[in-house]
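Recap from last week: sequence in, structure out.
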Amino acid sequence: PPPAPSAPSAPPGRAPVHARARSARRARAGMGESDEVEAALDALFRAYDLDESGELTRDEFVKIEMRLAFESGEVYKPDAGAARMTLADKNLSGTLDYEEFRERFLTSYTEMGLGRAEIVEHINGQVKMALGERARMGPRFHAGIRQVLRQIFNLFDASGDGTLSPEEWIAAQKTVAVEVTDDLDEGWIDEAAFHAADLNGDGVLDMEEFLEASFSMFEGVKKRTDQLLATLQRVAKVLEQQRSMGRKESPPVQIYVQVDEKPEFQPPKNAWQDEESSGEGKWQMAGEVALPLNLQTADDVASLLRLLLKMPADMWISVFWIGPPRDGSGTRPVTLLRGERPGEGNTAAMLNYLVKPNADTRLFVKNARKRPSKLVRQPRAFLEERDQLLAKRVGQCWGLDWETQLVGEGMLLPPRPLVVKAGDSVVVEVPQSEDGGEYRYVSSVFMDRNDILSKPVDENIEPKKSKKKSKKPVGEADPLLQLSFVAVKEGKCVLFVDMSWEDQEEKLAAEKNLGAPVAVNSVARIGPIEVEVEKATGKPAEKGTFVWWNGEKWTNKKGPAKRKKKKR
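Predicted structure tokens:
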């Protein structure tokens, strides 16, 4: 017969219930490991114990007894099985512990007149059948899978405290992502899985939370249990190899977030005005974390930080670090963490720097905004396609300008939906640069479809020169960019525009001698805007006529509505 599976691991410093009971039995009876009957009965008890609790519930007992009967070609009578369970339950607790289970089986064998060797042979046969039935019942009941998952949990738990922290989870994620490709859903151990598994919301996972989350995911995997077991064993082997080489991580890194719960967006010219040279007055420390050195991309780091900060997994964030001094000036540059793919960006450079003795071990998190799930990034229309779309723009233009919508507290979006006629266009006006081209902006368009409203058509707009004379020399005004979405057919569409100068913060901090990123946001979103396109009827508006949303109504004048002063 195959050897009995080893006992599952327990939380640090505490053996499982049935392991403690087994030790007590041996000490009381003076039996050693060589007692074959006791070893066989212990293996059978664990085969029946589906949830590894050390006690058998009525459901567990009946499930195994019924499947064993079917396997043997016998008719199973649930009432008789329940009665046997009741008879064995001496203390009427509703469950069977090992002693009650053992007594029930040994009594039956004695009544059958079986000798010692026959008892061992029969029990081992029952163990083999029970484990086989458990494997067919799925991953949740497979003894081998449960054992390997417990082993993996303990390998993830680098600190040995019996729980998985966000940094341990993300570090393990990198290994699992490589080992389970094409075998398992990588979502088994991704950022969203951590949030889902943390049932009590304490920011860490215990063994039971990890097992339950794993089984829930495996139930949707179309893999045989033997294939799943082989994959998990491969993961465990790699984790053991990594542990033997010694896990590497950075010293504790301090994570700073903005003091304001709802930070404003400001352009570069205004963003630094109220900043201190150290920058820490507008930031607060939210925690510390040791960064695993196997992180490869900016999003790997962001995933860990979102977990630490208990932010939803579907949030985009910007992460800044303070690099080593440059040019012998002693000034440490504020640096945006970059890199979408392994080997790109500066993630490796940041991790290598953070382990150095004199490193500035601060990370700054800002620009939190929701990642779109149904909207996708849209390219601009160019050449012939651009000309064709502009030819279809025969009606009114409904404009939203960035300064009205975003700067400071911003203004409310138009009521949903914004109803336009076919041939009209929705125009979002954004900046291209600032301070005579010193700082540049990047705009990204996201839409759920581009057959109702077209993909964006861009037009450069030269700002009007002020008629007022100024004593101070005025530089050349920066051009604006109008993104036009032409209404091409009836239907509904949702869009938003993100505009950013986050990659210019390093330049701003250097020029203004700032020791941290500015505490206002450098990324902002116009939208989402829901647009309903109706059939063009009646006399159309004059082609190209603009109306602008001022936060309260549509008007022919661009700019925000005047805020009413509160009465005292």
